[in-house]
């Protein structure tokens, strides 16, 4: 391994001609404040790249080689690096060079630029055109090590783990067995303390020069300095753990385990919310997501998410969910109590587009009671959120549909069971979404999941073709074909292998871009396939013949089942219904149906197994009337996420607005719309922000919350997109940005009137595709002079 | 906004300058969509950020925090791309000169200039010049006109580095007297400092450099209903430039001055002074510290903080006094309410003030790659910004993944 020596300004002054001096400060400081004469500038930030496929924060060998070459450095050039002060950043450059196989000597300038400029000359101005060199960097290796090395260190005695952060940080959390040695304790007044004093500190901690030492900190920055110091003092086996401590902790500690969290909630249920936060810090609120508890905007209240794999509930389960919502999802008086929401009151639940059920206003005190009731009927909130394998979605009428190839539900259940409570998979780099479809109609939206399975046939066997890397939110992508056929029994293995691949390659450091789809985009689907195969326990075979015939938008209406009975698809606009009403569905399922209540990816509910001659009677029930299987097209197609009402990200309110719009537009549709094209449903999806929880990209009319700032003030607005169609693997085109919500129903009318006037029978998405953008833009924006009051109240 | 003004919106939006994985996507970007990463590239990476904190104050999801290393805005939570940070950033989407223009047009009452001294010795001692700002705030607190003042103090762990604080008593005001010559993200810190206090829904005075006050005014006038309403009084400190902390301390060291030894700094009459407990450690032309000035300040034409109710500085008044420019009813009422704490004289000759303001404005107009246009559109779109700034030395720089957003909080 390469050693680093620490040198002072006097040494550098003597040896300046023999070494490459590298200034790692930012370009502006280098040029304007000044630098050591002849120094080249490689800004510190340029050598950290948490998004690269390389370990930790290291840049790729090619990136690093490029930077060095440009600075006129080859792999044998001796390097002296410095920064503003004691050298944390400069040491980072040296450690990077060491890890990437630099062969020349490495020196850290003690005291950095500040000490140098105290006594020696400096120069300003841009980099002089040094001759470019060629640089050959290796794949990263020692002294940088990965998690396995730390794991062994925790278990054995020869190696000591050293925490280079402050004592306070160490006290709040550290890797078991680690010794604390804050890098700052090794410096005084911006330069290294007396060497003997440092040796004493090391000896106090039992850190002898012949021991193996693994250093860590939070972001692999501070440890670089300690690395240089130990190396200077003749320590020969010093390694750096590139993963962050957070990463380690999440993997290993109780704080991040679902069981540990559940324990914490039970422990503090009596004392309440503030006591829990006092004891475990605000960070606990982020961790609780892992067990289905999202802290609401309103302090002290939670959204509780119940996962329903494949959307399939027994009547008993549905009743418990309904009752829990009715009893516990009640708003406190200070937030308006039963009147807190003008449209829905309180004590309601939301069916989501991932077949989860969410309720609001849950207090910590009530959670154990809810869990107990859930346990009795086999429901769970574990891993409904957080960076885990999320609720597996599946065709909501599996086992019923006459055209079904496979039972998607049983596959979804097996995947769910495999991952439930598994700590290893509870902390993926980010969330991981799986979808399973068994029918010909692709109703489980494989295209927008991390891993999507669609029915296929190969050599007479029936199984699935896999798609990978789909998703919405920032940087939406349609999943790519993985060219892989799997049998139903191999699905669990496949999901495991894909999750392993994600763990190994997904960056834990840059959370903003580490959904699986970015890896697929970066590495290419072939490489991803190879990587997953290497982790799977079965041999991959190429895709079979796909059996998907069309795309199905929803399950609303009364439909015939394979067994001759009917399933009744109720329409729950924006997915929100009263807890008591949901419990009533359970009664109806027992009375008329097969004892199941299913929830769909359209935020709707299905009652299966109704005898044909009982359908009419069922229709008479008030709940069925209210959530009618024969709604108007807008009410049928409307989807909305939680929105500003509870979500900290939501920019505008969604649910109330969307149902209001749908109602208004349905009236218009019935009375005035005069188009030959007469769809069952017009899909209008309203998302509170670009996280796109309501999936605007796959709607006919996709809307996403915005804020519009003009000289008159700010008003709620939406981005408007048109013509999404998963059946044609097409996302919407975003037509207008930040259009005032006040004009929204009108804008939809204008667009649909134009559509009706233009075409006889073309699907909406085809019409959108063929219509010039400018025209669509004009249709949406052409505001009738004063329908829009300047600021619509954002309720 | 008149109909059709956004007509260019249907054109495809140019991607950011960096190669961001999120740009490889299967749909277009909604026209006009601007995310934090665009602000980051155009302002922060381009080294134009003046750390006013307007972006952080404007972000509806509180996604913007302060980077531990460089003190600049960074993402701490998911960004929804609502564009607000851009819309309220005086170095990108907010045409600050229009904010000033609107503020002046809507202000009732007249403007007067005074030379002001704190009546009380301790305030005069604590203050930078006449201690007038400190005394004014103390008077307002005691008169019950405000419940607290958002000011700045030196951080305990780093000499000369400022941080925002909420002063709710005379003692705290005395503690925070004197000027801080680096920026504190002041506007974005209000929520934090109020949150940490036990004040509930307080009326506040906000002290800051002119850019901070521009942001505050913009939120109040063009924000959501009620936004910014907690600020009952704005006080701007005259300002030609502020400094980048690391560069400032580096240059001090280069001039043989240890930052630890400095009690306070001052910039006056074109000179920069560093004072120790009792002696002057450094007196030099302020140009010697040009390299440490925030490059974004060179685009600022608002020496006298014209959006503020009261602006304070040293130019044009005697050494032991503070120059006050008091504007409109809010300014005049505040001065009245705190009159017992202050010695107030008419300023008399304000030539020096006008000269410096004029010079500052000309310099800014020369530097600004875009036109300086007080009548121009309030909003500057992303494309418009790129048109003017690309290919200049203030062009957007690609986002550096190392500064990336290592946050854990998602929806
Ligand atoms: C960066 C900067 C540059 C300046 N440049 C000039 C100049 O070129 N010409 C000129 O005439 N005057 C300039 N001033 C103003 C001058 O330094 C004094 O602040 C002003 O004269 C008021 O003096 P005082 O004694 O009345 O204020 P004080 O009684 O000292 O009260 C000042 C108040 O402002 C707060 N404060 C100080 N610095 C900051 C800050 N950075 N952000 C937010 N709050 C702060 C303090 O906490 C205190 O409450 C500048 C100020 C700053 C911060
Ligand atoms: S969410 Fe916050 S950071 Fe993102 S664009 Fe909006 S204001 Fe900016
Ligand atoms: S200049 Fe102000 S608003 Fe703009 S990025 Fe910097 S801190 Fe934010
Ligand atoms: S010069 Fe202008 S931009 Fe710079 S700190 Fe002062 S007021 Fe802000």
UniProtKB/TrEMBL annotation, chain A:
Keywords of the record: 4Fe-4S, Heme, Iron, Iron-sulfur, Metal-binding, Oxidoreductase
Boundaries of every Rhodanese domain copy: 15-125, 155-257
Segments of this protein annotated with the region Disordered: 119-143
InterPro entries associated with the record: NIR_SIR_4Fe-4S, NiRdtase/SiRdtase_haem-b_fer, Nit/Sulf_reduc_fer-like_dom_sf, NO2/SO3_Rdtase_4Fe4S_dom, NO2/SO3_Rdtase_4Fe4S_sf, NO2/SO3_Rdtase_FeS/sirohaem_BS, Rhodanese-like_dom, Rhodanese-like_dom_sf
Biased composition (Acidic residues): 128-139
CDD domains (UniProt xref): TST_Repeat_2 (cd01449)
GO molecular function, one term: thiosulfate-cyanide sulfurtransferase activity
Family: Belongs to the nitrite and sulfite reductase 4Fe-4S domain family.
Name used for this protein in its record: Ferredoxin--nitrite reductase
Protein source organism: Halovenus carboxidivorans
UniProtKB/TrEMBL annotation, chain B:
Domain 4Fe-4S ferredoxin-type stretches: 40-69, 71-99
PROSITE patterns given in the database record: 4FE4S_FER_1 (PS00198), 4FE4S_FER_2 (PS51379)
Signal sequence, renumbered to the chain: none
Pfam families per the UniProt record, alphabetical: Fer4_21, FrhB_FdhB_C, FrhB_FdhB_N
Chain segments carrying region Disordered: 1-34, 367-411
Comp. bias (Basic and acidic residues): 1-12, 383-396
Gene3D superfamilies attached to this UniProt entry: 3.30.70.20
Recorded GO MF terms: oxidoreductase activity, acting on CH or CH2 groups, with an iron-sulfur protein as acceptor
Transmembrane stretches, start-end: none
PANTHER family attached to this UniProt entry: 7-HYDROXYMETHYL CHLOROPHYLL A REDUCTASE, CHLOROPLASTIC (PTHR31332:SF0)
Name this protein carries in UniProt: 4Fe-4S dicluster domain-containing protein
Organism: Halovenus carboxidivorans
């Amino acid at each position: 391994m390469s050693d680093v020596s620490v040198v002072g300004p006097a040494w550098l002054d003597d040896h300046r001609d023999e070494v490459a001096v590298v200034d790692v400060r930012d370009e502006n400081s280098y040029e304007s404040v000044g630098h050591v004469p002849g120094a080249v500038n490689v800004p510190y930030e340029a050598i950290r790249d948490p998004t690269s496929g390389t370990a930790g924060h290291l840049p790729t060998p090619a990136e690093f080689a490029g930077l060095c070459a440009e600075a006129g450095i080859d792999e044998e050039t001796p390097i002296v690096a410095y920064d503003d002060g004691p050298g944390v950043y400069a040491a980072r450059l040296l450690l990077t060079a060491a890890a990437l196989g630099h062969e020349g000597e490495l020196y850290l300038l003690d005291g950095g630029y500040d000490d140098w400029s105290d006594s020696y000359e400096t120069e300003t101005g841009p980099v002089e055109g040094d001759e470019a060199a060629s640089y050959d960097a290796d794949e990263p290796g020692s002294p940088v090590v990965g998690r396995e090395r730390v794991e062994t260190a925790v278990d054995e005695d020869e190696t000591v783990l050293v925490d280079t952060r402050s004592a306070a940080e160490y006290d709040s959390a550290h890797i078991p067995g680690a010794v604390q040695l804050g890098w700052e304790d090794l410096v005084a007044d911006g330069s290294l303390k007396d060497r003997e004093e440092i040796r004493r500190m090391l000896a106090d901690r039992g850190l002898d020069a012949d021991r193996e030492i693994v250093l860590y900190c939070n972001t692999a920055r501070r440890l670089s300095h300690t690395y240089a110091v130990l190396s200077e003092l003749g320590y020969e086996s010093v390694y750096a753990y590139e993963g962050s401590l957070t990463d380690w902790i999440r993997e290993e500690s109780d704080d991040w385990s679902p069981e540990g969290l559940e324990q914490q909630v039970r422990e503090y249920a009596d004392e309440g919310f503030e006591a829990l936060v006092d004891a475990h810090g605000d960070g606990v609120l982020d961790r609780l997501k892992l067990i289905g508890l999202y802290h609401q905007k309103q302090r002290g209240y939670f959204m509780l998410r119940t996962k329903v794999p494949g959307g399939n509930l027994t009547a008993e389960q549905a009743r418990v969910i309904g009752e829990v919502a009715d009893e516990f999802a009640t708003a406190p008086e200070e937030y308006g109590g039963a009147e807190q929401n003008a449209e829905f009151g309180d004590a309601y639940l939301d069916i989501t587009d991932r077949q989860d059920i969410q309720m609001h206003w849950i207090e910590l005190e009530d959670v154990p009671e809810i869990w107990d009731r859930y346990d009795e009927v086999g429901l769970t909130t574990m891993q409904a959120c957080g960076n885990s394998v999320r609720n597996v979605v599946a065709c909501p009428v599996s086992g019923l549909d006459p055209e079904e190839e496979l039972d998607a539900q049983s596959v979804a259940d097996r995947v769910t069971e495999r991952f439930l409570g598994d700590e290893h998979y509870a902390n993926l780099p980010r969330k991981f979404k799986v979808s399973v479809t068994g029918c010909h109609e692709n109703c489980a939206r494989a295209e927008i999941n991390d891993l999507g399975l669609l029915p296929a046939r190969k050599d007479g066997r029936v199984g699935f073709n896999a798609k990978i890397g789909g998703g919405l939110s920032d940087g939406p992508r349609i999943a790519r074909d993985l060219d892989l056929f799997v049998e139903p029994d191999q699905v669990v293995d496949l999901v495991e292998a894909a999750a392993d691949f994600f763990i190994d390659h997904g960056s834990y450091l840059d959370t903003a871009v580490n959904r699986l789809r970015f890896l697929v985009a970066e590495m290419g689907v072939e490489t991803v396939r190879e990587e997953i195969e290497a982790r799977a326990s079965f041999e991959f075979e190429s895709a079979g013949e796909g059996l998907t015939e069309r795309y199905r938008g929803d399950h609303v209406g009364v439909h015939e089942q394979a067994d001759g009975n009917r399933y009744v698809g109720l329409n729950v606009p924006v997915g929100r219904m009263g807890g008591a009403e949901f419990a009533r569905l359970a009664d109806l399922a027992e009375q008329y149906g097969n004892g199941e209540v299913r929830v769909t990816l359209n935020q709707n509910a299905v009652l299966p197994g109704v005898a044909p001659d009982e359908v009419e009677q069922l229709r008479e029930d008030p709940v069925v009337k209210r959530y009618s299987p024969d709604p108007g097209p807008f009410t049928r197609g409307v989807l909305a996420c939680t929105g500003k009402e509870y979500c900290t990200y939501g920019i505008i309110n969604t649910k109330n607005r969307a149902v209001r719009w749908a109602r208004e537009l349905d009236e218009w549709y019935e009375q005035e719309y005069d188009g030959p094209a007469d769809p069952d449903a017009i899909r209008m999806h309203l998302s509170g922000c670009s996280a796109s929880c309501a999936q605007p990209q796959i709607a006919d009319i996709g809307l996403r919350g915005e804020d519009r700032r003009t000289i008159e003030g700010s008003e709620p607005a939406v981005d408007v997109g048109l013509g999404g169609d998963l059946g044609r693997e097409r996302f919407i085109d975003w037509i207008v940005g930040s259009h005032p919500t006040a004009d929204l129903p009108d804008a939809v009318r204008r667009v649909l009137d134009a559509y009706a006037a233009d075409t006889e029978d073309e699907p909406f998405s085809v019409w959108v595709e063929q219509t010039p953008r400018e025209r669509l833009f004009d249709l949406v924006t052409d505001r009738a002079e004063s329908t829009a009051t300047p600021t619509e109240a954002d309720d | 906004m008149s109909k059709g003004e956004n007509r260019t919106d249907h054109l495809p939006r140019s991607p950011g300058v960096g190669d961001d994985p999120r740009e490889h996507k299967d749909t277009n970007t909604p026209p006009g969509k601007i995310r934090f990463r665009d602000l980051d590239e155009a302002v922060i990476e381009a080294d134009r950020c003046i750390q006013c904190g307007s972006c952080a104050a404007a972000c509806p999801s509180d996604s913007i925090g302060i980077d531990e290393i460089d003190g600049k805005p960074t993402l701490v939570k998911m960004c929804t791309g609502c564009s607000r940070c851009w819309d309220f950033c005086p170095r990108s989407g907010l045409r600050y000169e229009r904010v000033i223009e609107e503020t002046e047009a809507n202000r009732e009452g007249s403007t007067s200039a005074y030379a002001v001294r704190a009546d009380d010795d301790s305030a005069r001692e604590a203050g930078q010049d006449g201690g007038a700002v400190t005394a004014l705030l103390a008077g307002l607190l005691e008169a019950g006109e405000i419940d607290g003042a958002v000011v700045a103090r030196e951080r305990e762990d780093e000499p000369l580095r400022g941080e925002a604080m909420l002063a709710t008593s005379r003692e705290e005001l005395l503690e925070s007297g004197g000027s801080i010559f680096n920026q504190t993200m002041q506007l974005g810190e209000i929520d934090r400092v109020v949150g940490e206090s036990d004040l509930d829904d307080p009326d506040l005075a906000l002290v800051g450099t002119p850019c901070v006050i521009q942001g505050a005014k913009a939120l109040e006038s063009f924000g959501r209903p009620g936004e910014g309403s907690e600020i009952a009084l704005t006080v701007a400190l005259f300002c030609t430039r502020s400094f980048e902390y690391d560069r400032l301390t580096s240059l001090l060291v280069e001039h043989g001055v240890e930052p630890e030894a400095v009690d306070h700094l001052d910039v006056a009459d074109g000179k920069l002074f560093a004072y120790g407990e009792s002696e002057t450690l450094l007196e030099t032309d302020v140009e010697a510290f040009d390299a440490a000035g925030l490059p974004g300040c060179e685009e600022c034409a608002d020496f006298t903080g014209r959006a503020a109710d009261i602006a304070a500085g040293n130019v044009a008044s005697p050494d032991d006094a503070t120059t006050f420019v008091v504007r409109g009813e809010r300014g005049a009422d505040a001065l009245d309410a705190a009159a017992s704490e202050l010695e107030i004289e008419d300023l008399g000759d304000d030539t020096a003030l006008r000269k410096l303001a004029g010079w500052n404005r000309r310099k800014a107009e020369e530097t600004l790659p875009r036109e300086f246009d007080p009548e121009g559109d309030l909003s500057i779109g992303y494309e418009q910004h790129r048109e003017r700034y690309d290919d200049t030395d203030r062009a957007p720089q690609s986002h550096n993944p190392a500064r990336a957003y290592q946050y854990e909080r998602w929806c």
